[in-house]
Amino acid sequence: MSPSPIHTLDKNGVEITSVGFNRFGFDSEVPLDVLRALYLRPHYVMSSAPNKIKDIEAEAEEEVQHARFTGEHSAYQSKSVYHPSTGCISYTTLSRFPPVKLLAPSNRKRILVTGGAGFVGSHLVDRLMLLGHEVTVIDNFFTGSKTTVSHWIGHPNFEMVRHDVVEPFMIECDQIYHLACPASPPHYQFNAVKTIKTSFMGTLNMLGLAKRTKARFLISSTSEIYGDPEVHPQTEEYWGHVNPIGPRACYDEGKRVAETLTYGFQRQDGVDVRVARIFNTYGPRSELRPS
Ligand SMILES: O=C(O)[C@H]1O[C@H](OP(=O)(O)OP(=O)(O)OC[C@H]2O[C@@H](n3ccc(=O)[nH]c3=O)[C@H](O)[C@@H]2O)[C@H](O)[C@@H](O)[C@@H]1O
């Protein structure tokens, strides 16, 4: 038999079922059991016992006790469970997230990922989140989709902003991964001027941010900077063979100028930079069409 619900009485012995008031056209009345559902359950839980049966029993008992105060509103609260054996912490709000490492604040980086809703970006976001960092994604969703990172939305370490990198973006961060750019021929040729503007202005804005915040900066470049190469395989010393006015130039030359900017900021301003020239990639979340 489940324990009887808890009733709170006022000084006249009348049960209190709500707080706030509804008068003068202003309604601030909230049922008490809804409020209790939000604040009564312990938010932070330590779990050292991998014993599943014990955990399930303890959780069931907690549910019963919680339901005595909260009636039908028992599932409204977030919870954080720390597992000392793996050093991970699981956060639960209304949905449950994969466990991420619990890092000491000094090891936890504030990381900005531009283009983080895209194919490569979303896998990077997964990795950084699982490692326990704080990740902010900015993306204009031109080719990316919120669904690629929707499993992190609501997580306390995750933020997503709809923003076009051609406009400046101000944030305090320790690292910047700059991936925002249309990457497949139909996408980058859709608006060639915008593509090269994104590469140039976007990279300039992100390098400016890296300079101001002293953030480490990585840009995802491309094997296309080699153009139509005369050397196979291409080594980093090879400078490429690019047609500057051809239909692919907006992407190829855009990434080349982005690399030039990146090394310019390194030489002039001491920005800590990395360039990753990505060759053809595919996998889960990539589009099922040739690119
Ligand atoms: O292989 C490569 O060379 C490319 O790899 C990735 O591109 P990928 O993940 O394959 O492509 P998408 O899935 O289209 O991701 C690009 C992301 O940038 C975003 N984006 C695009 C254009 C723009 O102006 N702003 C912007 O935020 C898109 O919405 C998308 O989320 C990198 O994001 C590119 O910078 C890199 O050039």
TrEMBL record:
The keyword Lyase applies. It is a single-pass type II membrane protein. Keywords: Decarboxylase, Golgi apparatus, Lyase, Membrane, NAD, Signal-anchor, Transmembrane, Transmembrane helix. It is an enzyme of class 4 (lyase). It is found in: Golgi apparatus, Golgi stack membrane. Its cofactor is NAD(+). Pathway: Nucleotide-sugar biosynthesis; UDP-alpha-D-xylose biosynthesis; UDP-alpha-D-xylose from UDP-alpha-D-glucuronate: step 1/1. Its main location: Golgi. Residues 112-286 form the NAD(P)-binding domain. Transmembrane segments: none annotated. Its EC number is 4.1.1.35. It holds the Pfam family GDP_Man_Dehyd. The keyword Iron-sulfur does not apply. Belongs to the NAD(P)-dependent epimerase/dehydratase family. UDP-glucuronic acid decarboxylase subfamily. This is UDP-glucuronate decarboxylase. It comes from Hohenbuehelia grisea. The lineage of its organism: Eukaryota, Fungi, Dikarya, Basidiomycota, Agaricomycotina.
